[in-house]
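Dear colleague,

Thank you for sharing your sequence with our group. We've completed the structure prediction you requested, and as agreed, I am returning the results in plain text so they can be pasted directly into your records. Please verify that the sequence below matches your submission; if there's any discrepancy, let me know and we will rerun it promptly.
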Amino acid sequence: MITQRMIVKALPIFLAACVLGIPAFAGLRLPDPASGGYSGTSFYQGTRLDYAVYDMTISADSLKFNNAPGQGRYVYAYQLFNVSNSSAIGFLSLHGIEEGAIESSSDIGSVKDDPGISPTDEYPSNLKKTVVTYEFGNTSISVNKFSWILTIRSDGKPKAGTFTFDRPSSNEIPVSEASVTPEVPEPATMSLLLLGAVSMLRKRKR
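Please find the predicted structure tokens below.
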């Protein structure tokens, strides 16, 4: 017969087992952006992508990202998790970045987050730098693994974009391409806003 005393004794063991059974990435790992920052999560086919945008002119936002490569007012941060996808993930690509929002390839990088997996390479996938790809090579992200925090530095403000992921080239098990809209923020240039302001000034002069 189970007594109240037995339940009280067993409760700490049960709680510890529950905590240990939760994957290390069960909660958001990205720091919460202060002062009206932008953050969220997208899920697709057993894969999760956390994202946030940090304004580096606000000290509270910049603590973890002082060492993020490149220049620019904003840090766009992404973290990829393989929650239950049966195949390892070898590539993550971010789409919808506006031309000119990334000035240099050196603005693309990552920030260490142990025990996450570091990208083996990160690069613009086209000359206009409107797509950025992170490659995980031989250290591809298998189930219950996650990436370092992947970053883009830019002076461009956030706009909606998409992401895709794919299997490593050496892996024969296919991973369906993911496309999520409009939840992933991407850098956007301010040119359209400036053009709008100029046209308004011209109308006032008339």
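Summary note from our side: Confidence is low (pLDDT under 50) at residues 6-24, 192-203.

Kind regards,
the structure core
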